[in-house]
Design a protein that fits this description.
There is one protein chain. With 223 residues, this protein is an alpha/beta fold. It has one domain: Vaccinia Virus protein VP39 (Rossmann fold, 3-Layer(aba) Sandwich), CATH 3.40.50.150. The protein contains eight helices and seven strands. The chain has helices at residues 2-20, 27-48, 68-74, 88-97, 132-144, 172-178, 194-200, 204-207, and strands at residues 57-60, 81-85, 102-105, 117-123, 146-157, 184-192, 214-222. The chain has a seven-stranded mixed β-sheet. The longest helix has 22 residues, at 27-48. It is globular, with a radius of gyration of 17 Å. 34% of the residues are buried.
């Protein structure tokens, strides 16, 4: 499994080089997709929990912490937010910019903590895991740390990217296979396909009304 971890780290370096080249620097598109999915997250979370004051959240593969402020603004205290991350550079960013949260370093599979979480969140992590066994191991860990009345909140894409061999799709069927003990699955299709969204600018809301042009799923999984 360590070999798979190294592959993920290498893919991160490659992706960072591409991003720094400006190829994917489409700020307007990013604003639209973030606003869209955060609106859905907010609705799901408020329907699931009447009060977030004492609720705990863990994000698997938290990156540099781009989602942390959103969850805090919803009402989850920094002290109840846990961020797991594999990449050293991102871990440093988390510790520097969000000193009040709890940072769990390393492979998610190795998380050893005696806490159950009300929200276990992952965003575009599983599509970066190309090994089936490692996907299953991470999913198992997410299930282990989930409270009985909690939710797994999932955001990832369902179509392969022919231009990026470092990622692969995760379908609805695969999501269900990753969490075989799940009793209820809900799926919402979101995010206008990047090749289209990056080109249409302010036309994003119109083109996004066509569901067949959306490429990602938000999933909610319950025990």
């Amino acid at each position: 499994m360590q070999e798979e971890v190294e592959k993920i780290k290498k893919a991160y370096v490659n992706r960072k080089k591409i991003e720094s080249s400006g190829k994917y620097s489409h700020a307007m598109y990013s604003r639209f997709i973030v606003a869209e999915r955060e609106k859905v997250y907010e609705s799901i979370i408020h329907k699931s929990f009447s009060n977030l004051t004492n609720r705990k959240l863990i994000e698997i593969g938290a990156g540099g912490g781009s989602n942390i402020e959103f969850f805090h603004q919803l009402g989850i205290s920094y002290s109840n937010i846990y961020a797991n991350e594999l990449i050293d550079e991102r871990i440093n960013d988390l510790k520097k910019n969000y000193c009040e949260i709890n940072v769990l370093e390393g492979n998610a599979v190795d998380i050893n903590i005696d806490i159950k979480f009300d929200i276990v969140f992952q965003s575009t992590v599983f599509t970066s895991i190309l090994n089936d066994d490692m996907q299953l191991a991470v999913a198992k860990k997410m299930w282990e740390v989930l409270s009985d009345d909690g939710i797994i909140l999932w955001y990832d894409f369902v179509y392969n990217n022919p231009n990026n061999k470092d990622v692969r799709k995760v379908s609805r069927k695969r999501i269900k296979a990753l969490f075989p003990l799940g009793t209820k699955f809900s799926f919402i299709k979101v995010t206008l396909a990047p090749p289209i969204g990056r080109r249409v600018g302010k036309g994003y809301p119109f083109f996004n009304t066509f569901r067949f042009l959306r490429t990602h799923l938000i999933a909610v999984i319950r025990k």
